[in-house]
Amino acid sequence: xxxxxxxxxxxxxxxxxxxxxxxxxxxxxxxxxxxxxxxxxxxxxxxxxxxxxxxxxxxxxxxxxxxxxxxxxxxxxxxxxxxxxxxxxxxxxxxxxxxxxxxxxxxxxxxxxxxxxxxxxxxxxxxxxxxxxxxxxxxxxxxxxxxxxxxxxxxxxxxxxxxxxxxxxxxxxxxxxxxxxxxxxxxxxxxxxxxxxxxxxxxxxxxxxxxxxxxxxxxxxxxxxxxxxxxxxxxxxxxxxxxxxxxxxxxxxxxxxxxxxxxxxxxxxxxxxxxxxxxxxxxxxxxxxxxxxxxxxxxxxxxxxxxxxxxxxxxxxxxxxxxxxxxxxxxxxxxxxxxxxx
Length: 342
What we know:
There is one protein chain. By secondary structure, this protein is an alpha/beta fold. The protein is about 25% helix and about 25% strand. It has helices at about 5-10, 20-30, 70-85, 105-120, 135-140, 145-150, 190-200, 225-240, 320-330; strands at about 50-60, 90-95, 125-130, 160, 165-170, 185, 205-210, 220, 245-250, 260-265, 270-275, 285-295, 300-310, 335-340. The strands form three sheets. The protein has a six-stranded mixed β-sheet. It has a six-stranded mixed β-sheet with strand order 4-5-7-9-11-10, with no helix packed on it. A two-stranded parallel ribbon has the order 6-8. The longest helix is centred in the N-terminal third of the chain and has 16 residues, at about 105-120.
């Protein structure tokens, strides 16, 4: 009998009381999200059963203290409730940047910490990365544990051990000096590039690299020149013909839509490099998140999409948009498999 995956259980969640908890969570997730800086009404159930092979991956949350009651914060709270309804729960959660709305303000991180508190209370290990709408200093003020946790000075870089895979959360934020601006393309500084090169070559376990930006948008710091830097990053995570790597894939956000790219590491090499882009939890575009299931020799990334809108949701009284509904239907069941290179 085929083993049921977490994405299969989305439509068949009648084990372990999952339906009642899911219904309760959805009904209360956003009840208290009223006014700037408010906290959601997501209840805490304390520590629950964990599936060490299951990982939830979110991106592009865009939670702002002033705009959250409109829809971004509400959608993020609904996504959190969605994840917390699983029984057993994913053991880990990654957030691939743009946790803050536009300018990475302190109050944005204050609100996002409150929204994520039920996840932390449940015992899920949360790892957050930087996107182009984040600011490191403001993030660290509300998430101070990352100051000591980061593996590259001046950046917010994490390494996490999974059941069969390891994960590196890279920092691709090109942060401007002005606090009311952002730089859309990402970057990878020399120190981080060298650290990644060593980690990818030395890892004894299959490795997935996560970050906010697609590789094609990683330019030189402050210059926006992407071609050379993106090529170097691709070689770094995919390896070269004579320089194999433990990295078997790259997962990112930024584009607010699900897509998978595949490329040969070298024309005469049989290895294939996979990258996957994730949806936003509720800003615009594909709306949802992804679940990753680890196995000893591969990992399966499954899209969980339940909405689409652009540039913002329709009013509650408006008729559904057939084109938006078709996008959601077309994306049902989409996956990406990362095969271990060990």
